[in-house]
Amino acid sequence: MRGTRPARLLGLVALLTAAGAGELRGQADELVVEPLGLLRAGLRVEPDSSPRNTSFEIFDARLGVQGGFGTLLEYMLHAGFNTVDDEFRLLDAVVSITPIPEFGVNVGQFKAPFSMEELLFRPDIQYESRAQAVNAIAPARQIGASVSGAFFEERLDYEVGLFNGNGESLENDNNSFLYGGRVQFNTIGPLNFRDEFVLQVGGNVAFSRDSDVDLALMGRLDPAEGDLAEYSGDRLLWGLDLHTSYQGFFLDAEFLRAELEPEPEEGPVFSTSTAQGGYLQVGYQFLSGFVEGLIRYDAFEPIGEEDRDFLLVGANLYAGYNYRVEAQYVIGLHDSAPSPELADGQFILFLQLRI
Q1: How far is CA 41 from CA 186, 238, 354, in A?
Q2: DSSP calls for 239-262
Q3: CA–CA separation, 179 vs 353, rounded Å?
């Protein structure tokens, strides 16, 4: 999405936030402003094979507000601190209007409806980072618009939209969009308790005709086909996912696949290249959910590189909603080379604070 419309939208969200900064939750016709905050910091111990160094670091630092006006309008304004550039960057700036539960409109910068784990709020993911395939394939935050809704007492959710396809950039040089959608069915609905059996299945698909888009996390093309950090061509993404839980036990599984058809400026169109992967995660919460143990198999097949398979063992200690301590250890399988996030023998211990 290009032009001044996204900028005007971001300005609208900022004005709404400033106007309601002093308001508290009250009557249905009052502007509601609720703070958002996240701090994740701790120790990262890296093996000799890793390109990263052992260090104490801040993994995430985020601030924002969310709320709404009555039952019709909701908004979120959310920024995060980038430790590489030493500056804050805008993450979410979205306005949602939902006249009826079955149909609503979302406009701004927000996550495209793709991937169960990608759509989880950062403090709700159960390891320090998302799975390899999710980080590499999911479109993540985009500027655009979508329609969404829920049926059957909010058990069936859908969302479809069009986005600029260039991530958080306002530019859209080739006048083409990323089209995507997701549908999800949950046997319980949005609210469930530990003693209930929950089964959820979901699927998503997206397509884009790209020009100079950074897809470097997907791997490396042959030199004649170009660089995935500046990819041009067709991009087809799809995936399936599953979640189930009962009395503290849970299982999550997701598979994602990307099919790229590069289109160099000169020469023939090359055959489709694929990147795919996913994860299978099981865990158990005990002591009324305050302690959680989990294990994850995380596999990814990048383009033009060796497959990367890891086993992650983790434990979480929750002190209510606001505090969490996590430890995780990574085991590389099949002599897997380090990924941008994982390496054989890596150990992470961090504290999470959220509001």
Answers
A1: 33, 33, 12
A2: EEEEEEEETTEEEEEEEEEEEEEE
A3: 35
If you search the block for the tokens 């959710």, which residue do you land on? 157
Amino acid at 42: G
The CA-based angle 337-223-133, given to 5 degrees, is 40
**Best-predicted range by mean pLDDT among 189-198, 245-254, 266-275?**
245-254
Shortest CA distance to 274 belongs to which of 248, 256, 287? 256
Report whether 291 contacts 317 (CB < 8 A): yes
Q: Are 200 and 185 in contact (CB under 8 A)?
A: yes
The DSSP letter of residue 7 is: H
Q: What is the pLDDT of residues 300-316, one digit of tens each?
A: 999 999 999 999 999 99
Q: Which two tokens stand for residue 39?
A: 């701090």
User: Would you say 276 and 260 are in contact if contact means Cβ atoms under 8 Å apart?
Assistant: no
Q: Are 122 and 62 in contact (CB under 8 A)?
A: yes
The pair of three-digit structure tokens given for residue 303, joined into one six-digit string: 């383009």
Q: What is the distance of C-alpha 215 from the center of its chain? A: 15
Give the H or E element holding residue 18.
helix 5-19
Phi, psi of 12 (to 5 degrees): -60, -45
φ/ψ of 113, rounded to 5, equals -75, 80
State yes or no: pLDDT of 85 exceeds 80: no
Token representation of residue 23: 């308001």
The CATH classification number of 5-354 equals 2.40.160.10
- Closest CA relative to residue 230, chosen from 218, 214, 208, 217: 214
Least trusted range by pLDDT, from 198-207, 257-266, 289-298, 310-319 = 257-266
> What is the Cα gyration radius of the chain?
21
Percent pLDDT > 70 in the chain is 86
Is the pLDDT reported for residue 225 higher than 90?
no
> What's the CA gap between 164 and 145, in Å, rounded?
9
What mean pLDDT value characterizes the chain? Answer: 88
pTM: 0.88
Closest by alpha carbon to 274, among 239, 306, 235? 235
